[in-house]
Amino acid sequence: MIRHTCTIGSNSYILAQGHDMNELKAQMLDAVRSGGGFVDVVVFGNRRLSVLVSPGTNVIFETAEGRRRSPGHG
User: Fold this and answer.
1) Sign of the torsion formed by the C-alpha atoms of 33, 57, 28 and 63
2) In angstroms, how far is the first alpha carbon of the chain from the final one?
3) How far, CA to CA in Å, does 68 sit from each of 13, 30, 45, 57?
């Protein structure tokens, strides 16, 4: 299972499964290029965030291979 994490400023969020990370990157880049704007992000638990992204916003995307736990292990 692949897990995508987005860190905005000092807060990290695990993106919801099926969330298009490339589309999210494009939306954030568009917001920066226009001087700032809100970008909607769906995170783990199907929570929706509206993030104000501006030219000074630090954003990091991470992709990691996650391991599924075997039944009875934790």
Assistant:
1) positive
2) 17
3) 19, 35, 17, 33
Residue 14 CB-density burial (10 A; 0-12 exposed, 13-18 middle, 19+ buried): middle
DSSP helix/strand/coil, 28: helix
Q: Is 54 exposed, middle or buried (0-12, 13-18, 19+ CB in 10 A)?
A: exposed
Residue 47: pLDDT above 70? yes
Q: What is the pLDDT of residues 57-69, one digit of tens each?
A: 999 999 998 765 5
Domain locations in the chain as residue ranges: 2-65
Phi, psi of 26 (to 5 degrees): -65, -40
What's the rounded Cα separation, in Å, for the pair 59 and 73? 34
If DSSP codes are grouped into helix, strand and coil, which group holds residue 26?
A: helix
